[in-house]
Design goal:
By secondary structure, this protein is of the alpha+beta class. 29% of the residues lie in helices and 26% in strands. It has 2 domains: 2-81; 84-200, Methylamine Dehydrogenase, Chain H (7 Propeller), CATH 2.130.10. It has 2 helices and 12 strands, in the order ααββββββββββββ.
Length: 205
């Protein structure tokens, strides 16, 4: 009796294991996304349940990065649009002129603006105003006390200014004499090409 009962118990255990594997296969098939497949068989002994497809996880991780990149691009575009528009400064001879703008950019033209050449200035501050009393002399001013002077129309030298304040206007009669106006209305005058400056209070109207 014991010998006949043992095979029956083994068969019952095998049927129970087979039923469990079949149920697991059905649950996995229902959970898997459409079109997904796995070459492994759940009814093979020792084979673990397949993991979720990795590409979907990678796509989920990449989505925030793409959104961040797009936001950064939009911010740069807004910053570029907010920069000051180029200002053109003509000398007494209209053929000779300069064009200034953001980040210390200066362009020079000797044909009335038909063509332009970018000139190095050595500064990165936005340039806000300029004055040219002759075809070879040009004064430029900008943010954070930036003052530039050219006496040959092409090469620029940084002129020391007593304050790191934003400058909004400049009037000049030659390479030595100029008056600079600050954003708060004060004026500074030099008669020696920027070696020294005389400070004047804000003008009252």
């Amino acid at each position: 009796m014991e010998n006949r009962a043992a095979p029956a118990a083994v068969r019952d255990e095998q049927r129970s294991l087979a039923a469990g594997r079949a149920q697991a296969k059905e649950e996995f098939a229902r959970a898997a996304p459409p079109g997904a497949s796995d070459a492994r068989k759940l009814d093979e002994p020792g084979v673990p349940e397949p993991l979720a497809p990795a590409p979907a996880q990678a796509a989920d991780r990449a989505a925030p990065s793409a959104q961040t990149s797009g936001a950064q691009t939009s911010a740069l575009e807004r910053q570029a649009r907010a920069r000051p528009i180029a200002r053109e400064i003509a000398s007494p001879d209209p053929l000779f002129r300069w064009r200034t703008g953001a980040a210390g950019v200066v362009e020079h033209s000797t044909d009335g603006g038909s063509t332009w050449e970018v000139l190095p200035t050595g500064v990165v501050a936005d340039l806000t105003a300029g004055m040219s009393p002759s075809p070879s002399v040009c004064w430029l001013v900008g943010r954070a006390g930036t003052v530039l002077l050219s006496t040959d129309g092409r090469r620029w030298q940084r002129v020391a200014f007593p304050e790191a304040t934003d400058l909004v206007a400049v009037q000049a009669s030659d390479a030595r004499t100029a008056t600079v106006t600050t954003a708060d209305g004060r004026t500074f005058r030099t008669a020696d090409g920027g070696v020294s400056w005389d400070r004047r209070p804000p003008q009252e109207f």
